[in-house]
Design a protein that fits this description.
Elements: H1 2-29, H2 38-55, H3 57-69
């Protein structure tokens, strides 16, 4: 169970970092960075990611446990 927790945390942090950077890229690509700083886009994207993971945590846990149930 500890391995699943470590894998889940690493995956959560890696995808969160991607969501932060990707949101900044969207802000720059749409040229809204002239009005709003790109860091704010990153934080909004990260908060949206955290909310989506929290709202769908049952599906995330099932997806993490699925490879172990087929052993």
């Amino acid at each position: 169970m500890i391995i699943i927790t470590i894998l889940g945390m690493v995956f959560f942090v890696a995808v969160g970092y991607f969501a932060f950077n990707f949101s900044q890229c969207i802000g720059t690509f749409t040229r809204l960075d002239k009005i709003i700083p790109t860091k704010i886009f990153g934080v909004v994207g990260l908060l949206a990611y955290i909310y989506l993971v929290y709202a769908n945590q049952d599906a995330v846990i099932t997806a993490l446990k699925q490879p172990l149930t087929n052993l």
